[in-house]
Amino acid sequence: MLQNESSQQVSSQNLPLTVAKFGGTSVADYQAMLRCAHIIKNDTSNRLVVVSASAGVTNYLVRLSQESVPSDEQVDIIANIRAIQVNITQHLANDVEQHLNDEIDTLLNQLAEQALNQSVHHSVKQADAILSFGEQFSSRIFAQVLQSVGIDGAYFNVQQVMKTNSLYGKAVVDIEQLRTACNDILAVKLPQQVLVTQGFIGQDGLGETTTLGRGGSDYSAALLAEALNASNLSIWTDVVGIFTTDPRITEQARAIKEISFGEAAEMATFGAKILHPATLIPAMRHNIPVFVGSSKEPEKGGTQIKQKVDSNPVYRSIALRREQTLVTVKSPAMLHASGFLAQVFGILAKHELSVDLITTSEISVALTFDNPSGSTQALITSTVVEELEQLCEVTVEHGLSLVAVIGNGLNCAKGIGQSIFQTINDINIRLICHGASANNLCFLVNEKDANHVVEKLHNELFSF
Ligand code: ADP
Ligand code: ASP
Ligand code: MG
Questions:
Q1: Is it the case that residue 294 has pLDDT exceeding 80?
Q2: Which of 25, 29, 237 to mutate to test the pocket of ligand 1 (most atoms within 8 A of CB)?
């Protein structure tokens, strides 16, 4: 069976396979990388390692991928990226350091050339090529850090297997091709060596570099785990698991020991940055348990995400997604008419705009759109507005945040609305969505109120 070939090859050596993903802070510097190397060493099932760029590097690259960046700024950024990477390599044996620094400098020369070109002739294709450098550095370095602790670690170029379409910036992975390529190329190597590969990046049919969207390394790791029929996926990050809300918003947030795929997927979708929104899709498809823990404090355990969990509380967590756009379309022609919404959605579909929340009244409809972080372009362009204005009156509002209360049976439990909205009765709520899903109740508030709302609600709903 093709589908199980990879796991057979790995398990024929009695090696259960865990895909371990380390995020940016986990590979930020030498000490952090060393901690990750020990995590790999302590569990021999960790055979495939997926790394993000060292913390801060992708943000620098985002700047280099923009138009009209002054050349002295380009030079400074490249020097800063180099400093982050050579600060790590300096801790390795001299010959390894020399070899890695040569590779880093070769890549940096390519980066400098592309950045210069990009500042004059901007293209989304070139932007992706520029964004991919961070993972290229960190994966090469981490393979050597593994070697330094006695693990036979080797660099693996993910572009050999992660084939995508050419939607630069949010490329879509060809899952069948990934599975076949993983069987043909990766699976045979895994029993021999621990392979270190890049999250976030792929390659299209033209051989050009693509990226899967900011924070996409989690998703890369999940796709690889699925393609290899891995027994586990571990996401190592800077917090000891998934919390009841972002621990940066309130110190009352508590780590959750066990959570179902469905609940965790809702959290990721509604902005819990701990997981890229698509991460759990491959894991759910193949029922691969996911662990989320801190690479700084692995001894503290973390969160297990799995199909079935013992408790299904009404309130599980609160997620927050910033930078939401609200579009209200209004037309008296909508009253008792059919086909109006189809026309509105036709325009949105033509512009590849994905609607998030919807509420309707007699003659108007309010629609929200997510603005994925890192996107620099206006989501609702003047062309979209002009086309909609042919049909109706259009209002576009920015500066809003979406608060999602996530749990179980929220569409039928008694007193939900009162507990939530009574708690925040000092806040102007712009839109509410409730009833479509048993797992969430969502509303929009002004950006400036968002943290306060989450903090207050968390105190009320999660007072342990
Ligand atoms: P990595 O670089 O490892 O991918 P991220 O910064 O993408 O890490 O995600 C980890 C961060 O996610 C945490 O530092 C935390 O601030 C944020 N976060 C948001 N919501 C949650 C949540 N519910 N539980 C835990 N962390 C959360
Ligand atoms: N390095 C990429 C980013 O910062 C991908 C990731 O870290 O997941 O978005
Ligand atoms: Mg992340």
A1: yes
A2: 237
